[in-house]
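Progress against Task 2.4 (sequence-to-structure conversion) is shown through the following example record, which the project officer requested during the mid-term review.
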Amino acid sequence: MSHKIGFMACSVTLEGSEMPIQFEERYKSNNDQIDKNFKEDELRKIDEMSNDKNLIENLGKSVFPAVFGNDNIKKGILLQMFGGVPKVTEEGTNLRGDINICIVGDPSTAKSQFLKIVSKFAPTRAIYTSGKASTAAGLTAAVVRADDGGFVIEAGALMLADQGVCCIDEFDKMDIRDQVAIHEAMEQQTISITKAGVKATLNARTSILAAANPINGTYDRSKSLKKNLSFSLPIMSRFDLFFVLLDECNETVDLAIAERIMEMHDFMNGTRTTLNEDRPYTLDEVRTYIKFARQFKPKLTLESEKYLVDTYKQLRLNGCSDAGSGPFRNNKQSWRITVRQLESLIRLSEAMARMHCSDQVEIRHIKEASRLLKNSILKIDQPDVNLMDEEGEEEDVDMNGGDDAADGQPSTDNVHSLKISYDMYQTITNMLVIQLQREETKIDAGESEGIKRSQLVDWYLEQVLGEIENEAELVQKKLICEKIIDKLINIDHILIELTQVEQEETDEETQAPDHILVVHPDYLVDD
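Structure tokens generated for the chain above:
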């Protein structure tokens, strides 16, 4: 067993703790919040790091040099260490600032490695435990009989990690009853005990970093996130970020990982004298920076509040709710976006502002937090998009199961099925929407009369002309574009056709009227 030594004192003064003049001038609005007990060289290094344009990437490289790739997971864990700002409402309700993260994925994808690194590096207290070997009492608290015959409370992992990070490995191996026991701790950050005449409410103000394996051992991309996990919906909703790690065959990535592992083994065996670790900052410098940045309490501006509301509205409209209806609802989606995700956005944005030592949450912080949220729990849930008739969906053959799927190319072997990946569908949708929005700006200025359906298809083919090698690919690209426009009009209701009152009669052989297209006013382009 190993313990971190801590000293409790009423007052501590360090030599050379005067704040540099230029540093004090920059953070003069936070002088009442900033602890002056930092050495001058530490403050100068903090000021240098806060001005780093690639701060979050360099912090990730410094903390996780042994893990290749997975940049989004590194960013999410870093934001968890900085944390949001806890608040207390007028009614006395506590709003947590701690961020909960769950990493789900195939075996041998460095899930446990992330947890081990965090448990050893975290500047605050950190507890590592395994869900397979932990019970509800071991995670929360237990009431035991003392030697004198009375009852005392023994702290569990969540209590021991108060104001720190609790790393729970093998989270999926926990019994359902044990998972239910941490409901209160994850959201209210308290633990209530009523046993053997002992009634108490204990603090568990901790961030939870959990790692879990899918139900069948490997993640099934044809199923939603919920169907790949043995979690209950209440537990899932309490995690701010879900990251999915897939063990995919990629020659470049596999080569880089293999070389990295061999380099580490050679270094441990003594055959290599140095280890090529790309660490822009030392671990002590990162710990000091996190301790300093956590003293900031950034506040939302009016512009940031409006942008947050618009971002949350987009998440609800873009088919992410499994209840209710909306113009952009996708009933295949199983992840439910609730108000908790709005609170997650606020916490992530505040953590991003803290990372940059800012006393205000700016729009750029919200954009980065929103991108991280979308990449973590939304993109992996999206199934392949079928552009043909929905009625024959159950009889359709999945055309993305062959070699073409690996290249992201659709297949049209079956005339009743045309499936493309969600990423490809979203990319083409954004291209079309942005072009239409440009034309709408020209319409408002009186420079254009709008763009028709056929003109939009021709414009798209011009943009992808370099990817077309023969006439068959041209026909395929045109078919995909036309089917996507049909889906955007008739199913997703993202595009609107403007029908003219006095319209010339179209040819009987024309399959669809060539109307002017505009974008639904409530739709926002997915970044």
